[in-house]
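Human: I wish I could look at a protein chain and see how it folds. This is the protein in question:
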Amino acid sequence: MQQLSFGNRSTDLVARSLDLASAYRQLCIAPESARYAYLSVYDPTTCSAAPFQQIALPFGSRTAVNAFIMCARFLQWVAARCLAVPMSCFFDDFVIASTPSLADNAQKSLEVMFDLLGWAYDKTGDKSDCFSSSVAALGVVFGLDESSSGLVKVSNTAKRISEVEEFLAVVLSDGKLGHKKALSLRGRLAFCEAQVFGRTGQLALQAISQHAYRKPFVAWLDPYLKEALLALRSRISSGPPRSMSSAILECMYIFTDAAFHEDLSGGLGGVICAATGEVVSWFGVQLPSAFVSEIMKRD
């Protein structure tokens, strides 16, 4: 968007996602390597190990992943260098952006490129897509409705939000959280939290980490952890999306401060200043005595 803006062109964008079909199976084992492409797998019919010869790269293998990434990066290079189509690459997921006037041209160019190179991608079903102002990829949704003003919004998909809500509902209902589940939950919530505007969820994530590594470990949820899980569920369900602006290179200064006193009075505030020293925005809030008391207890 910055390059479009520098050229005095509209920054209005649309995008689409493209997912390779059975990605790893599209890379066959070279004939000269076939004699090495065997896996030993337990055969329940004979109750013994049985060798199976592979005809394609094994999904998840370290060397197979490295080889596949090289191929995926090649596709990205061809799109950018030969077609002048910007395309991101993450394993077998690609996101392509275009101006609305060139979207149809970009679509047809990519179809020709993938067909000529022999790569199959999802053209029908849930993973098929077309250019629009809202594109879902890698568990997030990119909102381009305000791209004309240089703003892109990133949020969690409805499916991911629903899965997290269901998981948290079970944990809160059981009233306990095991060590392995705590680590799994923290990773899942950290990803979702990253797509929500603000950083208040970081304190709640720290509460899950403290619970997981508590010694001696106690699976039962304490009141503080319950409060943290409820806060995270609320943020992920209804929190505003993360915003990214093309003005990100503009230098801004943010100053924050907080004060807590023995008489249980306190507050916090912040101010944003432009590079010229001009105050862009500020806030200040007085905190309730009960909240200050709780903060001072933890310190």
